[in-house]
Amino acid sequence: SAAKTYENIIVEIRPNKVALITLNRPKALNALSTPLLNELVDALQVLQNDASVGAIVLTGSEKAFAAGADIKEMSTKSYMEVFQNRLFGQTDAIVQKIQKPVIAAVNGFALGGGCELAMMCDFILAGENAKFGQPEIKLGTIPGIGGTQRLARAVGKSKAMELVLTGRFMDAAEAERSGLVSRIVPAKDLVEEAVKTAGTMAAFSQPIVSIAKECVNAAFETTLAEGLRLERRLFYSTFATNDQKEGMAAFSDKRDPKFTNN
Ligand code: CO8
């Protein structure tokens, strides 16, 4: 499977059907340059198409998940360059095309585009040293990869406004309290805990996991009535799969299910 080599990221396939993507521009604290983002989107699409992979973990280093978009690359760009080249447009594929679960394992700084990238993932596990923020305001710009929208949905208006308008960072404890991250883990254990959690998901029926992900994501896109309708329809659709029959039969037989992804 995906033993493809990249310059700005490292992709590893673990025995538990988990792919681990490590952002690897240590000298720039994993700043999200265009080449890095292109590689990341390529790798995610390769992993999406790799039947041996059931879930993905995205991480950085102990010092930084990613300290933002690459400020040096952006600093001299004109309006027409960012508009016509659709700066950061490639990242839309992460949310729109990846059906497998993606965990962000965040140690250290997740700032600007780094915080936005983490929020594009399905959930965030934070090391106890994690720091989240949208400091674009200090650079004379604003979040441009979803920060104003996803942070507001994740932590509510008051905290999102404060972070976006002041550039203040929040630590892991505040991020967990406010619902941005699902759990805090000791920094040195974070990546292995994320791989283990991804392995739990990778052991379930892949199509059913994707359907569950689609339903939760719909909660952020639609009305309650529409979301409930979608959930009910997709719940019924699981009864058309062998894996639902197997999962319920295994429960009755008091044995482990053997899911076949169909
Ligand atoms: N871009 C480029 N290089 C960076 C970035 C970055 N975002 N962050 C850090 N680096 C580089 C530094 O320049 C430095 O390089 P060098 O050694 O060559 O000087 C190296 O990484 C190490 O960084 P520091 O020496 O600064 O490390 P410290 O430990 O002292 O500080 C900080 C760590 C606090 C994280 C600090 O590096 C920092 O403040 N970084 C910038 C954080 C930031 O502002 N991020 C937001 C960027 S803007 C963005 O993400 C979205 C813009 C959306 C625009 C949408 C347009 C469509």
From TrEMBL:
Pfam family, any one: ECH_1
Gene Ontology cellular-component annotations: mitochondrion
GO molecular function, one term: enoyl-CoA hydratase activity
GO biological process, one term: fatty acid beta-oxidation
Organism: Andalucia godoyi
UniProt record similarity statement: Belongs to the enoyl-CoA hydratase/isomerase family.
EC numbers on record: 4.2.1.17
Broad class of enzyme this protein falls into: lyase
Keyword Lipid metabolism listed: yes
Name assigned to this protein: Probable enoyl-CoA hydratase, mitochondrial
SUPFAM superfamilies linked: ClpP/crotonase
Keywords linked to the UniProt accession: Fatty acid metabolism, Lipid metabolism, Lyase
InterPro entries hit by this protein: ClpP/crotonase-like_dom_sf, Enoyl-CoA_hyd/isom_CS, Enoyl-CoA_hydra/iso, Enoyl-CoA_hydra_C
